[in-house]
Specification:
By secondary structure, the protein is mostly helical. It is about 80% helix and about 0% strand. The protein has three helices and no strands. α1 crosses α2. The radius of gyration is 27 Å and the shape is rod-shaped.
C-alpha cells in the first residue's frame, strides 16, 4: 500500500499541489478497504490504472475474508448434516438387509 501511495503521489502531486504525502496514504487505505471517500480525484491515465488495480485488490481481499468467515460459520452445520446423512445411509442398509432376509 505504501508503494501505491508513493506512486500516486509522484504521478498526481503536480495536478493536486494542495495534497501532502500523508493524504495519499490515507486515500490509498480508503481505496483498498473499499471505503473510497472521493476526496482525491485522479487525473493521470497511469494513476487511474493503478487505482483500478487497488480497487480490485481491495475487493478481492475483502471477499476472501468474507468467504473464510462464512466457511467457518457454516462448517459445523455441514459436519452435522454429513453425520445425519451417514446415519440415514446406515439405517437404509439395515432395512435393506432385513428385507433381503425375508
Amino acid at each position: 500500500m505504501c508503494s501505491s501511495a508513493v506512486t500516486i503521489y509522484i504521478l498526481e502531486n503536480h495536478h493536486q499541489t494542495d495534497r501532502e504525502f500523508i493524504d495519499y496514504v490515507v486515500w490509498v487505505i480508503g481505496i483498498v478497504t473499499t471505503v473510497g471517500y472521493g476526496d482525491v480525484q485522479i487525473k493521470t491515465v497511469m494513476g487511474k490504472f493503478i487505482v483500478s488495480g487497488l480497487m480490485l485488490f481491495g475487493s478481492l481481499y475483502l471477499w476472501s475474508y468474507m468467504a473464510f468467515l462464512v466457511a467457518a460459520l457454516v462448517e459445523p452445520e455441514i459436519n452435522k448434516i454429513s453425520k445425519d446423512v451417514d446415519l440415514i445411509e446406515h439405517d437404509l442398509e439395515t432395512v435393506k438387509e432385513q428385507l433381503d432376509r425375508k
